[in-house]
Design a protein that fits this description.
The chain is of the alpha/beta class and about 325 residues long. The protein has a 4-stranded parallel β-sheet, with helices on both faces. The protein has a 4-stranded parallel β-sheet with strand order 6-5-7-8, with helices on both faces. Helix 4 packs antiparallel against helix 8 and helix 6 packs parallel to helix 7. The radius of gyration is 20 Å and the shape is elongated. The two termini are about 40 Å apart. About 45% of the residues are buried.
């Protein structure tokens, strides 16, 4: 029996990449099947439709008395700490008769680590060569943000996969915004002499950034033919990802989960980001909200954000393009 009073909203980032939107939609379908007792909607922060506000309004129109909003994102950088709360809080302020609660990001989770290991193992099985883990190097790739707390999570994921799976060495890299970028990291780690390098994008969905990571890996394989490069699949709709979302919902049903604010640059003076403390919380996606994917029209998102050491990093739809004017 469907609980007509409590509804669930899955909040995605959005992308200009049609395949990324399809994969997020597939995840939402899995969650509907997993959680049939709830009315469930999904929406996007930018580019794709429906936008988050549309999903929230749809749940309201179908009689929801309480809406539990979950960020469909791995880590808490600017989007989870600022943009999504602004969307949710704005809707809640306009609808004082509704109870609206906001959950936490997926974060570092043992289920996600197990799913990651299975993705890495699937890449190893594609090889025709017998190379031990001790002779293999693992490169875990995160999105990259200007939030050091979020970036440090990739380092922790890397270390836990390294020790848990028995690789000879492991490094982390990023697809943009911060360093090391994937191409530079691959050039460096191939000098360590490992017979195999496994590149694993720690991403939920494909998109411009994942495709860039795989392209950099192909280019490195062409430059260094003596090393075997394997491209591990990203997390996508792994059953343990679905389980992790269900866990976040259970947390929200049981109470109000606390986000990790201990190292948040908006709450405390983080090294190098002292000026970000107490910055105003505001959304900044008005100009790209719901404009569609590249397949909808040949849209050129015509501005670039220059980031240090980022090869004129394009302002891609899958980047966590966090800005210090967002507060917590």
């Amino acid at each position: 029996m469907t609980d007509s009073k409590t509804a669930v909203m899955i909040c995605g980032h959005g992308s200009r990449d049609r395949q990324a939107i399809e994969e997020f939609t597939l995840l939402a379908q899995h969650l509907r099947q997993r959680l049939p007792q709830f009315d469930l909607e999904s929406g996007f922060l930018e580019f794709a439709r429906p936008i988050i506000r549309d999903g929230l309004e749809a749940l309201k129109s179908r009689g929801a008395g309480r809406i539990l909003a979950l960020p469909g994102m791995l880590f808490a950088a600017g989007h989870v700490k600022n943009d999504l709360p602004w969307e949710i809080n704005s809707f809640a302020a306009d609808n004082p008769g509704l109870e609206v609660k906001y959950g936490r990001e997926l974060a570092i989770d043992l289920k996600l680590l197990k799913a990651s290991a299975e993705r890495i193992e699937s890449a190893e099985r594609t090889s025709g060569r017998t190379i031990s883990r001790a002779d293999s190097l693992l490169l875990v790739v995160g999105r990259g943000t200007n939030d050091p707390d979020a970036n440090s999570n990739i380092a922790k994921v890397t270390r836990m996969l390294w020790e848990g799976m028995g690789f000879g060495w492991a490094e982390c890299a990023f697809s943009g915004v911060t360093t090391p970028l994937v191409d530079a990291a691959l050039d460096r780690v191939q000098r360590m002499g490992f017979a195999r390098i496994v590149v694993f994008p720690y991403f939920l969905f494909t998109g411009i950034l994942v495709k860039r990571i795989y392209q950099w890996t192909d280019e490195a394989a062409a430059r260094f033919p003596g090393v075997e490069f394997l491209k591990a699949p990203y997390l996508r709709d792994h059953p343990l990802v679905i389980d992790s979302f269900a866990d976040r919902l259970e947390e929200l049903l049981d109470g109000q989960p606390a986000m990790n604010c201990q190292l948040c640059k908006y709450r405390e003076q983080a090294l190098g980001y002292e000026g970000a403390v107490g910055a105003l919380q505001t959304g900044h996606h008005h100009h790209v909200r719901g404009i569609g994917t590249d397949d909808d029209h040949q849209h050129d998102h015509g501005h670039t954000h220059e980031h240090p050491h980022d090869h004129h990093h394009e302002h891609g739809p899958d980047d966590h393009h966090d800005h210090d004017h967002h507060g917590h």
